[in-house]
Amino acid sequence: LLLVLCVLLAAALIALGVLSEFLPLICDLYFNFFIDGTCPKCEEGWELHRGNCYYFSTNKSTWNQSRDDCRSKGGDLSISSTLPVQSFLELRLRQNMNEDDDKFWIGLTDSKEEGKWLWVDDSVQHFSQNKEFPEGEDCVVMGKKREADDLKCWFDVFCTKSYKSTCEKSV
Fold first, then answer.
1. Which ranges carry the C-type lectin domain (predicted)?
2. 8-61: per-residue pLDDT in tens?
């Protein structure tokens, strides 16, 4: 019995050693981020993805109110300018949709200059030539087309409408 316990203890120590060697790889693979020998953590209610923390608010409010809410939490509306972030948001928003017409504010607007789409960090969003948003609707939500399962759709809507929102901040 003592021999079995010694073998189990040795195996556990070896496993811990192997795990500690692979922690940076695991952290980089899943979170694409590594700080001071540990994986970063987000505050309660926030989720880690690629070095940023995301918060999914189910409270419905206008674009400006949603942005103020994100800022009060130390972040801003989400920037969905890369495919990995877009895919992550699609998955998480789908889990927070209670109705098919639920939509979520993201941090994209052309309110400063019609047709010039800027993220909340002032980076420009370029669209392909066939992508046109109607004039006058200055803020963007992410949602689902009527009968489609694909949630990777962006819609420009009046900023004064009330929707759920996504916030983002650095770790």
1. 49-168
2. 655 654 554 444 444 444 554 455 555 555 677 899 999 988 889 999 999 999
Residue 142 and residue 68 in one domain? yes
Whether 96 and 140 have beta carbons less than 8 Å apart is answered as no
Residues 62 and 16 placed together within one structural domain of the fold: no
Calculate Rg over the CA atoms of the chain.
21
Which residues, listed in sequence order, are joined to residue 26 by a DSSP beta bridge? none
Sign of the torsion formed by the C-alpha atoms of 9, 13, 14 and 15: positive
CATH for 82: 3.10.100.10
3-state secondary structure 46-86: CEEECCEEEEEEEEEECHHHHHHHHHHCCCEECCCCCHHHH
Residue 5, pLDDT above cutoff 50: yes
The residue to which tokens 């981020």 are assigned: 33
Residue of 126, 156, 121 lying closest to 138 (CA atoms): 156
Residues 6+ apart with CB under 8 A from 90: 142, 151, 152
Same domain as 73, residue 22: no
How does strand 47-49 pair with strand 153-157?
A: unpaired
- Residue-wise pLDDT for 90-114, tens only, equals 888 888 887 777 899 999 999 998 8
